[in-house]
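Anyone else keep sequences and structure tokens together like this?

Example one:
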Amino acid sequence: MNLQFIVDGLLTGSMIGLGAIGVTLTYSILRFSNFAHGDFMAWGTYATLAVVSAIGAVFGKVAPIGPLSFGWPLIVAVIVAMGFTGLLALALDKVLFARLRAKGQSIIVVMASFGASMALRSLLEFLFTSRPTYFSRAIQIAMPVGFGIRITPDQIALLIVTALLVFGVHMLMTRTQTGRSMQALSQNPALARVVGIDVAKVVRVTWLIGGGLACVAGVMIGILVQIRPLMGFDMLLPMFAAAILGGIGSVPGAVLGGLIIGLAEAAAVQLVGAEWRAAISFIILMAVLFVRPIGLFGVRER
């Protein structure tokens, strides 16, 4: 059996896991499934592309960093776009979701997020067309690392970035007052409000983290595959499946769930064919809901 699927699965799982962090935090703290989360990925990616183009217009063509396919403009652009995407998520909550949450019916918020998803995606297609584009058309040579596995410099860099981001979010959630407040609000909203936790601040941080990580996940897809308005929507089911598999509210669980789904999809492509790839997330999601609805690291609400 060709073990190349391991690298492919880890890369896909990294993208899913980063996106699933925002999904799991949003659901655990705000109590609704945000169908617009995938579109945050697409908007963050196109924002990155726009900043890269602007830098190129000012500084001209910039050489890539070592063996990578991109240079420093992409790094700067991602940082700017993370902020933009976080603010976009925050603005959408302020204008739409927060007002509907105040009415106390979560199903209305869920449906509104679905409508917002369609609107954001349509606006992207209007601004950038539906034709796919790329950060770079450079062809990288994959390096053999043994056991029939080959990996490119871009893939190595993105796996490292994913690990650093996950570690950073984990430290934020476990070592800072804001992170502990987020966990408290997730596990027992009523008690968290009684003890004086600043709920508005926790909500703001949740949207900023979710939007920023969605941007990075989208850029990873753009670097390794292509950029198009539907890129985030296509990742929506795997992200929800990863969040539920890992346990709602668990950041490590969301990442582990993403990796499991990524590896399962890659293995399915190799064993039974690419036509089964899209079904894997749904199959895993249904299995988890039947066997362990709270997920691997989930805790029952009190």
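And example two:
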Amino acid sequence: MKHQQEEKIQLKVDGVSAGKRLDVFLSEKVQNYSRSSVKRLFEKKLISSPHTSKLKPSLIVEEGMLFSLTLPEPETIDVIPEHIHLDVLYEDADIIVLNKQAGIVVHPAKGNAKGTLVNALLAHCKDLSGIGGELKPGIVHRLDKGTSGVMVAAKNDLAHQSLATQFSSRSLSKTYLAFVYGKFKDESGSFSTAIGRSQRDRKKYSQHTLKPKEALTAWKVLERFSCGVTLVEVALHTGRTHQIRVHFSEAGFPLVGDITYGGEKQVNRIQLKQLKLYLSKLQRPALHSFRMNFSHPRTHDELSFEAPLPNDLQELLDVLRKSEPTLS
């Protein structure tokens, strides 16, 4: 397996993080790093600062302090086939189209070596395209852990190359359904703010980034609810990490259930007690990959696949319709 190179990063303490322990600050800002992982960085002397030589996990950080970190190469992970249920929408010798369940990670990574979609695919298909590497065989695109719905995987390199080309040329189309907080003035629109890894929090993505990448998200209103929740249809024209969640959140319309991008802060604005209780219990962003259209890699036939709303989001829709009258 090929290792990724070590990564050097620099973090600056902002006003929100001031007063926290250094190990807490770093674990919050460095993606996939727990406090125990950060502790190992201290032990290996991979953390430095121009502000102090007395670096220890319990150091209380102050606003403006800078810290430089060297993140070592990730450890090798053996990907083991696992018999995990897959909701298969379509399958042939070249591709497999799935209705991914919310809560499952797409591919193995540090902290998620087992129980991923790749583990399940290896058991189901026996062989997958090797272009994605040992940790991502067959994976042409991904859905966040909390996102459900349609996704496609490649069984061989021909399919992988064809699908990757369709993604990059934007001839493959993806349509999502999302429940968001807020009332839209218009019936449709788009967001085109470039996004990248956040300067303030490395676990998040934002327009406030040192490396912005083009991102285009189109939307249209499907259903409005007087409680302040809106059901929207979303079309992705680029495929940036967390793109839909970031674009809607930074425009003032965070997704229902999205703890990372501000969705949980909106629950208290809901007046109806039953609806408020249901919204607070939703365990993931209310985002579903509803439809995907693409050309078959071998036959070039135009294919279209849809996945109905999963039970939790269908129940959310039912509760919204039952609890509050829909506005025209």
